[in-house]
Amino acid sequence: MKNLLCFGDSNTFGTNPAQPGTRHPFGVRWTGRLATMLSPEWRVIEEGMGGRTTVFDNPMEPRRSGIQALPIVLQSHRPLDCAIVSLGTNDLKEIFHASPRTIAAAAEQVCAAIRDYPYGGCGPAPKILLVSPIAVKPGISRSPYVGFDEDAVERSHRLAPFYREVAERNDWMFLDAATVAEASDADKLHMDPENHARLADAIADILRIEFTD
């Protein structure tokens, strides 16, 4: 059995842009689709949380720092064969004033924490797939999900090159989610079912290649 951790934010949780405050069903979420696409040997572990950042603390949304949540998550779900990290969108919020380079460096900290965690008898460390997030759309400042200004749109489009550099330097797998999926026009932030499917397809292709015996 291969254990796959999907560690992310509301687009991993599966927030439904058409109905704010609700969640796509398991079979619609990219994580759920991935579970059906991979062989029965894979166990997909969902760890998505709305508002989750890489490393930043938001006083308006407490307990959302990804790196602070990691020790509990890793201790609970070890052993792991692969970890997908899909964070960075919430780092674009105005309160953090974070550049794309800073956000990518923070994502590197999260991935490094997964790599360096003491798994003990449940080792070795998992392979890592770093996913650069989809771009947010113009009008995000008027979205039901507060905290973003319009500058977030431009910065979201500049994340991928920095994420790619981080992944290549550390020999991690990489996917630019913005090349295969996009946010819904409904809330400028979250994916609809079609885009969850596209993301699942792209991730499945990467994992099949990486884990081919």
Automatic annotation (TrEMBL):
<feature type="domain" description="SGNH hydrolase-type esterase">
    <location>
        <begin position="6"/>
        <end position="194"/>
    </location>
</feature>
<dbReference type="InterPro" id="IPR051532">
    <property type="entry name" value="Ester_Hydrolysis_Enzymes"/>
</dbReference>
<dbReference type="Pfam" id="PF13472">
    <property type="entry name" value="Lipase_GDSL_2"/>
</dbReference>
<dbReference type="InterPro" id="IPR036514">
    <property type="entry name" value="SGNH_hydro_sf"/>
</dbReference>
<dbReference type="InterPro" id="IPR013830">
    <property type="entry name" value="SGNH_hydro"/>
</dbReference>
<protein>
    <submittedName>
        <fullName>Lipolytic enzyme, G-D-S-L family</fullName>
    </submittedName>
</protein>
